[in-house]
Amino acid sequence: MRYLNSGRVNTPPAKWLRLLVMLLAMLASVTACQAEPKVTISTKEGRTVSFVVEIADTPSKREMGLQYRRDLAADRGMLFIFPAQSQQSFWMKNTPLPLDMIFINGDRKIVGIVEQTVPFSLDPRSVSAPSQYVLEINGGLSQRHGIKAGDTVRFEDIPQPNVRE
Fold first, then answer.
1. H/E element, 39
2. pLDDT digits (tens, 9 = 90+) for 117-129
3. Which of 43, 123, 154, 164 has most Cβ atoms within 10 angstroms of its Cβ?
4. The dihedral of CA 104, 109, 110, 111: what is its sign?
5. Contact 92/99 with Cβ under 8 angstroms?
6. In the 8-state DSSP scheme, what is residue 4?
C-alpha cells in the first residue's frame, strides 16, 4: 500500500523503520549517560584513587571473577560484593594476571590487602579480618598508590540490593 504525504511516497514499513531507528538512538543515548560503577579509595596520606569496576554480586559472578582475563586496565577492577561480612577467601585458578586483593569491611574501611597474587595458584588467599567486599585490581597498584589497611573506600553507582548468597 502506498499513499501520498506532502509530495512524498511513504510505505508503512518505512515509517516503522524510522520509528525503530529513533527509539534505538534514544536508548543508546540513555545507556551512554549511565555512570559506570566506581570505587574510590582515600588514603591516610590524603591521596585518592578511583577504579571503574565490574560487579560480582552473585555466586556465579563471584566464582568466575577475573578468570581467563589476560589484561586489565590500570584504572579498572572487579568488586566482589557479599551478602554479609565474614572471612573471605580467594584463589587464582585460571587467572593469568597477578592481582592485588583489597578486603573491605561493611564500614567501607580496608581491613587487609593481599598483594601480587601468584597467577594460576590454588592456594587460598585471605586476610584475618572479616570483610563484605573485595576489590581486585592489577598487582602492584596498591603499593604504587600507597593504599593500606585503614584507608577509606567510597562506592559510586554500585547496586547493593541484588547481592545473593
1. strand 38-42
2. 999 999 999 999 9
3. 43
4. negative
5. yes
6. E
Please report, as a single letter, which amino acid is at residue 81: I
Write down the pLDDT at residue 57: 94
Domain ranges in the chain? 3-33, 38-156
Closest alpha carbon to 139 in 91, 74, 94: 74
Name the residue among 91, 38, 26, 81 with its Cα closest to residue 58.
81
Contact 141, 74 (CB under 8 A): yes
- According to CATH, the superfamily of the domain at 38-156 is Protein of unknown function DUF192 (2.60.120.1140)
Which residues, at least 6 apart from 120, have a Cβ–Cβ distance to it below 8 Å?
92, 93, 94, 95, 96
Is-contact 55 37, C-beta < 8 A?
yes
Distance between CA atoms of residues 11 and 101, nearest Å: 59
> Within 10 Å of residue 59's Cβ, how many Cβ atoms?
10
Q: Which amino acid is at 66?
A: L
Q: What pLDDT is stored for residue 1 in this prediction? A: 45
Q: What is the pLDDT of residues 84-134, one digit of tens each?
A: 999 999 999 999 999 999 999 999 999 999 999 999 999 999 999 999 999
The CA-based dihedral angle spanning residues 110, 150, 126, 87, taken in that order and rounded to the nearest 10 degrees: -70
Residue 41's Cβ-count burial label (10 Å; 0-12, 13-18, 19+) is: buried
